[in-house]
Records
---
Amino acid sequence: MVCDLCYVFNEAPEAPQALNTYNSIVFSLSCSVSKMSLLWVGQIQLLRPALPRRQHRRRRIPPHHFAPASAYHWPTSENAVHTKTLEERFVISGGRELSGHVHISGSKNSALAILAGTLCCYGTSVIHRVPKISDVATMLSVLRSLGATVEVSDRGVRINTDGVCSVEPCSESMLKIRAGFFVIGPLLARFGEAVVSLPGGCNIGSRPVDLKGRVHARAENGRCLVGGKFHLDYPSVGATETLMIAASMAEGVTVLSNAAQEPEVADLAEFLNASGAKIEGGGTPAVVIHGRKWLHGPEFTVIPDRIEAGTYMMAAAITHSCISMSPIFPSHLLSLITKLSAAGCEIIQKEPHYLEVSAVSHVRGVDLRGVHIRTAPFPGFPTDLQPQFMTLLSTCSGPAFVEETVFEGRMSHVKELQKLGAHIQVCENSALVCGRGHLSLHGSRVHASDLRGGASLILAGLAAEGVTVIAGASHIDRGYENLEQKLQLVGANIRREPDS
Ligand SMILES: CC(=O)N[C@H]1[C@@H](OP(=O)(O)OP(=O)(O)OC[C@H]2O[C@@H](n3ccc(=O)[nH]c3=O)[C@H](O)[C@@H]2O)O[C@H](CO)[C@@H](O)[C@@H]1O
Ligand SMILES: C=C(OP(=O)(O)O)C(=O)O
């Protein structure tokens, strides 16, 4: 792929680091972390002082295969995804046994990448099972800010990007979510140019593109992107997805090696293929992408959210209850299933997409066993389930180690769990959890400071005796659809209230 990247920094950056050479030169967007690069390719030019915004707006739109912008009705606030703006908190009266069924929503990480992918598609894309979470609402704002029309209804999210004519999405929305950055691929592929703010998302580590300022990316000489060979030093989900989207519309063939294998990457590849792309090996380390001139809007259903499902599986375990859930792809959750089974949970697959998790036999004084976990890229144990599993371990019997290898800052939930009575010692990216058994946690006031850390506090609240108040509901709303309603349906005493 050949493109120029012009970084626009607010502050003077260190020089970008060259990390790899294949057909093209690969630079890191990171100024500090050397693990890998987000694989932006080509010549990098640092622009200082920053160019005025307007100069980047609505520049030349290359002769293109997209239909001209036509009149569309913008979605009204009634059919837009509901977003909560006031800060709220959850109040849980814990220690109850749960039972019943949980309906699993569509995958957050899959939906976000697919929504960005619709920017490659001519005509209307209809996406089903898009979760009603605030990250999706933000991503839809990003698309609207570019000129896409978006309609949200019970029949799916309908997106038409034919009228997109801006290469600069709303930076306020971009700063809220990680996945906003994914639009850089399709914008480059479609317009040869993109001006995007560096992304937000969970504050769980350096996450190398977390710099202040904006990235101005340009295809070399305003030409199309050109395919090439890329080896990822680390199988980054975001880098794999960005490259896959961009390469779908690049000229020629792109080959990725050591690509991320997460199910959400495979789902994005399915979506792009359903749109007319030709991607072989999506969801494996070796991906071959044959670029197409244009893609068309397909009808597509997002996979169920394995992280949401995993969180409810642990809700069953930590409350020594039995909860069934569907739809769920058990093959996406094998590492968690193995660990929960080793801890003593019974996991029964009743139908291909229907699972029951039970820890009821442990109710009379028999605790679940502590088991060690080490997070790793898929198919390893997901980092997005580490905080929740740590809460569970604090209610098992005996000591257990938690090793976080994906993000170096994903331990912020520990001090909040300690307030609830958990015995955990942290040493760098590892934690020793001294499990003290069922009902060993007690209610308290805690604060969620990131999405999965927040989910871990919800689990703790369900297991704790007394009342737990969890402030920072907005972090949890980023990734869990109707959390309190789903938990109420299985018998939890949880409510949401304004945080005064
Ligand atoms: C929106 C979305 O899909 N988010 C998911 C995605 O995040 P995201 O795509 O940000 O995660 P990555 O796989 O890129 O990051 C994993 C690791 O690679 C490092 N890295 C990444 C890029 C880079 O250029 N240099 C570098 O060193 C990161 O600092 C981190 O330590 O995958 C993570 C890992 O499964 C999940 O926790 C997130 O929920
Ligand atoms: C880290 C997460 O999300 P994001 O990458 O969107 O911040 C997550 O879903 O746990």
---
Amino acid sequence: MLEVRVKHDFPGFALDVAFEAPMGVTALFGRSGAGKTSVVRTVAGVLKADEALVRVGDLRLDGLSVPARRIGYVFQEPRLFPHMSVRANLAYGMRGGDMDAVVKMLGIAALLDRRPGALSGGEAQRVAIGRALLSQPRLLLLDEPLAALDEARKAEILPYIERLRDEVGVPILYVSHSVAEIARLATTVVALEAGRVVRVGAAADVLSDPDVVPVLGVREAGALVTARIEAHHEDGLTALTWSAGTLLLPHVARPVGAEVRVRIEAQDVMLAATRPEGISALNVVPVTLTALRDGEGPGTIVQLRAGDDLILARVTRRSATAMGLVEGWQGYAVVKSVAVAAGNVAASFPVL
Ligand SMILES: Nc1ncnc2c1ncn2[C@@H]1O[C@H](COP(=O)(O)OP(=O)(O)OP(=O)(O)O)[C@@H](O)[C@H]1O
């Protein structure tokens, strides 16, 4: 659906990136200087790379001028026209589409008569996304759209980007260096390091790959699993089923039956050789060790199969040795319910 190939030599930096991705959100992830912006600028047509191929569906965009590419671009800051109302900003460059539907989807109906100066950062960013959408783009480029917002504003805007992903048939190339954000939004993850692709694939596969952990940052590593809401309990917990059994989490504000994606951070998973008794953690699942990777510090990342899913745990190398952790080891993973924050549970999306 989306195919990108870019080769370019900057003085002292060689960019050589190629990936293909299905519909949905393709997240370009990498540390500062990995080459994300250069890829996006090539896709937009503002950087003339030595070699470039950009295909959306059956259409090659790389030979076209910047306007002819019809790419909607949303930057870190909203770049709205300050002297125009929200309505006029949305109408500017509108090529078609249903303004009412876009306004409803992004929850900005109450803002239409305001000027950008009277909007919060999150509201302004939703308007910027609406404006990009109404230009009927073939592709939406969201370049760190949440980076300038505080945590509360990020939490407010994320569900709208999920709706964009699930309800609008426009592919989205999403640049971010926040693992939490890509875990929540990405259909496909392209992990970049020093101008090259380290790994590309479905978000759950890439995020549970121990070899990608150094790129993601060991503190942020964590796996994604799909779960279904089973019941809301009176004591404030929600029971979910996943391939490894039942998961009890703090209340998840979704209806019974809904499918959600849950990010289980590696640092919240403990290992035990025998089924632990008399502990406060509510989630204990049998696991088989599938891969180990030592970090640069005292830690080791362990990949485990739980049911049909892969999860990660972060343990010290000392514990790994003491417990005799090797491929094929069988034991138990313990996930503390309260460790899984609400922001780590997100809308799932149709499997593509
Ligand atoms: N016009 C240029 N001339 C020379 N070097 C450049 C140019 N543009 C980018 N680079 C170099 O290419 C590398 C990748 O930069 P790029 O901005 O694409 O990275 P990034 O992953 O987007 O980083 P960030 O997250 O900091 O925005 C950097 O080393 C940068 O210095």
